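Q: I'm writing up a methods section and want to include an example of the input and output format. Could you take the sequence below and give the corresponding predicted structure tokens, formatted cleanly so I can copy it straight into the document?
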Amino acid sequence: VPLAAGAKQAVSLTIDPRLLADWSNGGWTMPAGSYGFALGTDAEHLAPAVTVTMAGKHWKG
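A: Here is the clean output for your methods example:
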């Protein structure tokens, strides 16, 4: 989202749950728990992380 210097805007991101899952026995499993997400211009310049608690999920893939 391009912004002018000093500007702020709320944004929403959709994250594919497979990015948080492991593949085994012919399906994906995302463990229940708290997941932290941080955004930034690069890995050394991150904003404070947001923590999201998610229910576990299993699905065939």
